[in-house]
Amino acid sequence: MNHLEAFLNAMRADAALVHRPENLRWLANYTGEGCLFICREAQVILTDSRYTEQARREAPEWGLEQVDAQRKYPALIAEQIASHGAKTVHVETDFLTYDDYRRLESALAGVELVPMDGIPEKLREVKDEEELACIRRAAAIASDAFMNILPSIHAGMTEKQVQRVLEFEMLELGSEGVAFDTIAAAGLNGALPHATPSDHVIANGELLTLDFGATVNGYRSDMTRTVGFGKITGELRQIYETVRMAQQLGLDALAVGKACGEVDRVARDYIDARYPGAFGHSLGHGVGLYIHEQPRVASGSAAVLVPGNVVTVEPGVYIPGVGGCRIEDTVIMTDGGIINTIAAPKHLIEL
Ligand SMILES: [Mn+2]
């Protein structure tokens, strides 16, 4: 079943307005700006003159309406809704701004706006073969890029310099762009789970956490490796081995039919027993057109893993004044077990 068909089957209103860029791409293969009007008998891309030719190329089977100074989005949307007699319309209330919503409301008197309630996001949790191929390609690019840059990164470089080398290599290998802002955090900065790369000069004896991904046809990969410079000893080495074991336990716990919360708990219990309170975030998340999708592999989550889910497993330990470590893979759930899309090794590499 194609994505549009699945969405039409899941709709609970007469029509839907779709604004989230990932959903435009997922439903219409359209990557420009604007929005989609969808009902059973018509599917229309609404956009401005900058994107009309692109829309024709990317989504030739979709209708096309162009906004201009006289007919702005609310008016154009109202026309579509009236001409198809829709009384109820799904809107992405978790994405539109309050102002957007108010403009729609006043342009659509007599029409009931119904929250989209994550219908496309729910469907997107299960990836088809084409989507999985893109994610696997993006994962291979990121993993290969990491391996390729190891000989050229060294103590004395800044976090920003390592970031640039890594991102350049991913582009060289065919990534469309970074999957999200690359994290490169060395030394004490490693205690910040989502550190921004800085001018900190990496010194021997420090760990460097690299969290990054590539993009292929809009689909993303997500991986984290922590590498050492010079000899890594004492607590940092213990932290590394703790995270590595927790990550393996998390991977081993993944299975179709299992609740995400159970998987999270296995890795979390292992870390909490050694470094209480040092692992604050969730174990993982879905990955696809957006970097953080459902299902969340989070504490207490009852969401059950099904074939076609793509999730990360990324425990970490963060200790202010000491440093930190995270190790992450992106894996595909199948009936026959997991496929780990990230090939890069996970033993402690000391450069
Ligand atoms: Mn991640």
Rg, rounded, reads: 23 Å
Count of DSSP-assigned helices: 10
Output the structural class. alpha+beta
- The string of secondary-structure elements, in order, is HEHEEHEHEHEHHHEEEEEHHEEEEEEE
Total strand segments: 18
Task: Describe the largest sheet.
Answer: 6 strands, mixed
CATH topology of the largest domain: Creatine Amidinohydrolase
Query: Bound compounds, please?
Result: manganese (II) ion
Strand content: 15-25%
Instruction: Just name the CATH architecture of the largest domain.
Output: Alpha-Beta Complex
CATH H level of the largest domain: which superfamily? Creatinase/methionine aminopeptidase superfamily
Average pLDDT confidence is: 97
- Biggest sheet, strands in spatial order? 4-3-2-1-5-6
Bin the helical content: 25-40%
Task: Please state the oligomeric state of the protein chains shown.
Answer: single chain
Categorize the overall geometry.
elongated
Question: In CATH, what is the class of the largest domain?
Answer: Alpha Beta
> What is the number of domains?
2
Distance between the termini: 49 Å
Which regions contain 5 or more consecutive residues with pLDDT less than 50?
Answer: none
